[in-house]
Amino acid sequence: DADVTQTPRNRITKTGKRIMLECSQTKGHDRMYWYRQDPGLGLQLIYYSFDVKDINKGEISDGYSVSRQAQAKFSLSLESAIPNQTALYFCATSPGQGHTGELFFGEGSRLTVL
Amino acid sequence: EDQVTQSPEALRLQEGESSSLNCSYTVSGLRGLFWYRQDPGKGPEFLFTLYSAGEEKEKERLKATLTKKESFLHITAPKPEDSATYLCAVQANGGKLIFGQGTELSVKP
Protein backbone atom coordinates (compact mmCIF):
# COMPACT_ATOMS: atom_id res chain seq x y z
CA ASP A 1 0.00 0.00 0.00
CA ALA A 2 1.15 3.54 -0.79
CA ASP A 3 2.47 5.64 2.12
CA VAL A 4 0.72 8.74 0.73
CA THR A 5 -2.71 8.04 -0.74
CA GLN A 6 -4.75 10.47 -2.80
CA THR A 7 -8.41 10.18 -3.75
CA PRO A 8 -9.84 10.44 -6.29
CA ARG A 9 -7.10 9.62 -8.82
CA ASN A 10 -9.11 11.09 -11.65
CA ARG A 11 -12.05 13.49 -11.65
CA ILE A 12 -13.95 15.29 -14.37
CA THR A 13 -16.26 18.07 -13.25
CA LYS A 14 -18.02 21.16 -14.55
CA THR A 15 -17.34 24.82 -14.02
CA GLY A 16 -18.78 26.10 -10.74
CA LYS A 17 -18.85 22.76 -8.95
CA ARG A 18 -17.24 22.22 -5.55
CA ILE A 19 -14.49 19.62 -5.54
CA MET A 20 -12.53 18.03 -2.72
CA LEU A 21 -9.29 16.12 -3.14
CA GLU A 22 -8.26 14.03 -0.18
CA CYS A 23 -4.86 12.92 1.05
CA SER A 24 -3.96 10.48 3.79
CA GLN A 25 -0.53 9.30 4.91
CA THR A 26 0.88 6.47 6.98
CA LYS A 27 4.43 7.86 7.22
CA GLY A 28 3.80 9.60 10.54
CA HIS A 29 5.05 12.93 9.18
CA ASP A 30 3.81 16.20 10.62
CA ARG A 31 4.29 18.28 7.49
CA MET A 32 1.93 17.99 4.54
CA TYR A 33 1.71 19.89 1.26
CA TRP A 34 -0.50 20.33 -1.80
CA TYR A 35 1.17 21.00 -5.14
CA ARG A 36 -0.15 21.59 -8.63
CA GLN A 37 1.66 20.38 -11.77
CA ASP A 38 0.97 21.76 -15.25
CA PRO A 39 2.70 20.62 -18.47
CA GLY A 40 5.95 22.49 -19.03
CA LEU A 41 5.85 24.13 -15.61
CA GLY A 42 7.47 23.24 -12.34
CA LEU A 43 5.48 22.04 -9.37
CA GLN A 44 3.76 24.97 -7.66
CA LEU A 45 2.89 25.02 -3.96
CA ILE A 46 -0.78 25.66 -3.14
CA TYR A 47 -0.93 25.19 0.65
CA TYR A 48 1.12 23.57 3.37
CA SER A 49 0.65 22.54 6.99
CA PHE A 50 3.32 21.85 9.60
CA ASP A 51 0.90 20.34 12.12
CA VAL A 52 -2.81 19.90 12.74
CA LYS A 53 -3.35 23.50 13.87
CA ASP A 54 -1.13 25.08 11.22
CA ILE A 55 -2.25 26.14 7.72
CA ASN A 56 -0.18 28.29 5.37
CA LYS A 57 -0.74 29.69 1.88
CA GLY A 58 1.67 28.79 -0.87
CA GLU A 59 2.40 30.68 -4.06
CA ILE A 60 -0.91 29.91 -5.84
CA SER A 61 -3.56 29.62 -3.11
CA ASP A 62 -6.26 31.77 -4.75
CA GLY A 63 -9.35 29.69 -5.53
CA TYR A 64 -8.30 26.89 -3.18
CA SER A 65 -8.80 26.06 0.49
CA VAL A 66 -7.51 23.24 2.71
CA SER A 67 -8.40 21.40 5.87
CA ARG A 68 -6.03 19.43 8.12
CA GLN A 69 -8.43 17.05 9.82
CA ALA A 70 -5.76 15.01 11.60
CA GLN A 71 -2.01 14.47 11.47
CA ALA A 72 -2.55 11.94 8.71
CA LYS A 73 -5.19 13.75 6.64
CA PHE A 74 -4.98 16.90 4.53
CA SER A 75 -7.69 17.79 2.02
CA LEU A 76 -7.77 20.36 -0.77
CA SER A 77 -11.01 22.03 -1.88
CA LEU A 78 -11.97 24.00 -4.93
CA GLU A 79 -15.08 25.93 -3.87
CA SER A 80 -16.12 26.81 -7.41
CA ALA A 81 -14.00 25.05 -10.01
CA ILE A 82 -12.91 26.86 -13.17
CA PRO A 83 -11.29 25.44 -16.33
CA ASN A 84 -7.82 26.86 -15.60
CA GLN A 85 -7.75 24.69 -12.47
CA THR A 86 -7.46 21.67 -14.75
CA ALA A 87 -4.17 20.12 -13.66
CA LEU A 88 -2.45 17.26 -11.87
CA TYR A 89 -2.51 17.73 -8.10
CA PHE A 90 -0.04 16.14 -5.70
CA CYS A 91 -0.08 15.75 -1.97
CA ALA A 92 3.29 15.40 -0.26
CA THR A 93 4.69 14.88 3.23
CA SER A 94 8.02 15.49 4.88
CA PRO A 95 9.64 14.69 8.22
CA GLY A 96 11.61 16.90 10.61
CA GLN A 97 11.42 20.56 11.46
CA GLY A 98 10.71 23.58 9.28
CA HIS A 99 10.93 23.55 5.51
CA THR A 100 12.71 20.77 3.71
CA GLY A 101 13.14 19.75 0.11
CA GLU A 102 12.95 16.00 0.77
CA LEU A 103 9.31 15.30 0.06
CA PHE A 104 7.30 12.10 -0.26
CA PHE A 105 4.60 12.41 -2.90
CA GLY A 106 1.32 10.66 -3.51
CA GLU A 107 0.47 9.34 -6.96
CA GLY A 108 -1.54 12.40 -7.93
CA SER A 109 -5.12 13.40 -8.64
CA ARG A 110 -5.86 14.42 -12.20
CA LEU A 111 -8.63 17.03 -12.28
CA THR A 112 -10.41 18.17 -15.43
CA VAL A 113 -12.79 21.13 -15.23
CA LEU A 114 -15.06 21.50 -18.25
CA GLU B 1 14.01 36.70 -8.63
CA ASP B 2 14.68 33.09 -7.57
CA GLN B 3 14.68 30.83 -10.58
CA VAL B 4 15.44 27.22 -11.57
CA THR B 5 15.93 26.18 -15.20
CA GLN B 6 16.47 22.62 -16.42
CA SER B 7 17.96 21.63 -19.75
CA PRO B 8 17.40 20.01 -22.08
CA GLU B 9 13.61 19.74 -21.94
CA ALA B 10 13.83 16.27 -23.48
CA LEU B 11 16.73 13.87 -24.07
CA ARG B 12 16.76 10.69 -26.09
CA LEU B 13 19.60 8.23 -25.54
CA GLN B 14 20.50 4.79 -26.72
CA GLU B 15 21.03 2.18 -24.04
CA GLY B 16 24.59 2.55 -22.76
CA GLU B 17 25.02 6.11 -24.06
CA SER B 18 26.09 8.24 -21.08
CA SER B 19 24.97 11.85 -20.76
CA SER B 20 24.16 14.65 -18.31
CA LEU B 21 21.12 16.70 -17.35
CA ASN B 22 21.55 20.30 -16.21
CA CYS B 23 19.83 22.33 -13.50
CA SER B 24 20.80 26.02 -13.38
CA TYR B 25 19.64 28.14 -10.50
CA THR B 26 19.55 31.72 -9.26
CA VAL B 27 18.51 32.01 -5.63
CA SER B 28 19.15 34.31 -2.71
CA GLY B 29 21.11 31.87 -0.60
CA LEU B 30 21.10 28.15 -1.32
CA ARG B 31 19.95 25.89 1.50
CA GLY B 32 19.80 22.74 -0.61
CA LEU B 33 19.34 21.32 -4.10
CA PHE B 34 17.18 18.25 -4.64
CA TRP B 35 16.77 15.79 -7.51
CA TYR B 36 13.61 13.77 -8.09
CA ARG B 37 12.55 11.12 -10.59
CA GLN B 38 8.97 11.08 -11.88
CA ASP B 39 7.51 8.15 -13.83
CA PRO B 40 4.39 8.67 -16.00
CA GLY B 41 1.25 8.68 -13.89
CA LYS B 42 3.23 8.72 -10.65
CA GLY B 43 4.32 11.24 -8.09
CA PRO B 44 7.94 12.42 -7.95
CA GLU B 45 10.35 10.17 -6.06
CA PHE B 46 13.20 11.73 -4.09
CA LEU B 47 16.72 10.86 -5.29
CA PHE B 48 19.39 13.18 -3.84
CA THR B 49 20.08 16.21 -1.69
CA LEU B 50 23.14 18.42 -2.26
CA TYR B 51 24.02 21.21 0.14
CA SER B 52 27.28 22.82 -0.96
CA ALA B 53 29.42 23.38 -4.05
CA GLY B 54 31.69 20.45 -4.75
CA GLU B 55 29.38 17.91 -3.16
CA GLU B 56 28.54 14.72 -5.09
CA LYS B 57 26.01 11.94 -4.49
CA GLU B 58 25.69 8.61 -6.33
CA LYS B 59 22.99 6.00 -6.71
CA GLU B 60 23.40 3.13 -9.16
CA ARG B 61 23.93 4.73 -12.60
CA LEU B 62 23.17 8.25 -11.38
CA LYS B 63 25.59 10.81 -9.98
CA ALA B 64 24.59 14.33 -8.94
CA THR B 65 27.09 17.16 -8.64
CA LEU B 66 26.76 20.77 -7.49
CA THR B 67 28.51 24.06 -8.26
CA LYS B 68 27.60 27.58 -7.14
CA LYS B 69 25.37 28.09 -10.18
CA GLU B 70 24.23 24.68 -11.37
CA SER B 71 23.85 20.99 -10.73
CA PHE B 72 24.38 18.09 -13.10
CA LEU B 73 22.76 14.70 -13.03
CA HIS B 74 25.15 12.34 -14.80
CA ILE B 75 23.72 9.11 -16.14
CA THR B 76 26.30 6.43 -16.88
CA ALA B 77 25.46 3.60 -19.28
CA PRO B 78 21.70 4.17 -18.97
CA LYS B 79 19.14 1.40 -19.32
CA PRO B 80 15.55 1.66 -20.60
CA GLU B 81 14.29 1.54 -17.01
CA ASP B 82 16.03 4.88 -16.39
CA SER B 83 13.48 6.52 -18.70
CA ALA B 84 11.54 9.10 -16.66
CA THR B 85 11.23 12.81 -16.07
CA TYR B 86 13.93 14.15 -13.75
CA LEU B 87 13.04 17.15 -11.62
CA CYS B 88 15.39 19.54 -9.87
CA ALA B 89 14.32 21.70 -6.93
CA VAL B 90 16.18 24.39 -5.03
CA GLN B 91 15.52 25.55 -1.50
CA ALA B 92 16.37 29.18 -0.87
CA ASN B 93 16.78 31.15 2.36
CA GLY B 94 13.35 31.39 3.98
CA GLY B 95 12.61 27.80 3.06
CA LYS B 96 10.83 28.30 -0.26
CA LEU B 97 11.24 25.29 -2.57
CA ILE B 98 11.42 26.10 -6.28
CA PHE B 99 11.02 23.33 -8.85
CA GLY B 100 12.39 23.31 -12.37
CA GLN B 101 10.18 22.20 -15.24
CA GLY B 102 11.94 18.86 -15.61
CA THR B 103 13.91 16.94 -18.24
CA GLU B 104 12.14 14.03 -19.92
CA LEU B 105 14.65 11.24 -20.49
CA SER B 106 14.00 8.41 -22.92
CA VAL B 107 16.44 5.51 -23.18
CA LYS B 108 15.94 3.18 -26.13
CA PRO B 109 17.23 -0.41 -26.19
Give your account of this protein's structure.
- The complex is a heterodimer of chains A (114) and B (109).
- In chain A, a hairpin with a 6-residue loop joins β4 and β5 (44-49).
- With 114 residues, chain A is mostly beta strands.
- Chain A is 0% helix and 50% strand.
- Chain A is built from no helices and eleven strands.
- In chain A, the strands form two sheets. In chain A, strands 2, 4, 5, 6, 9, 10 and 11 form a seven-stranded mixed beta sheet that branches. A four-stranded antiparallel beta sheet of chain A has the order 1-3-8-7, with no helix packed on it.
- The radius of gyration of chain A is 13 Å and the shape is globular.
- By secondary structure, chain B is mostly beta strands.
- Helices cover 0% and strands 61% of the residues of chain B.
- Chain B has no helices and eleven strands.
- In chain B, the strands form two sheets. In chain B, strands 2, 4, 5, 9, 10 and 11 form a six-stranded mixed beta sheet that branches. In chain B, strands 1-3-8-7-6 form a five-stranded antiparallel beta sheet, with no helix packed on it.
- The mean pLDDT of chain B is 95.
Keywords:
heterodimer; A: 114 residues; mainly beta; seven-stranded mixed beta sheet; four-stranded antiparallel beta sheet; globular; B: 109 residues; six-stranded mixed beta sheet; five-stranded antiparallel beta sheet
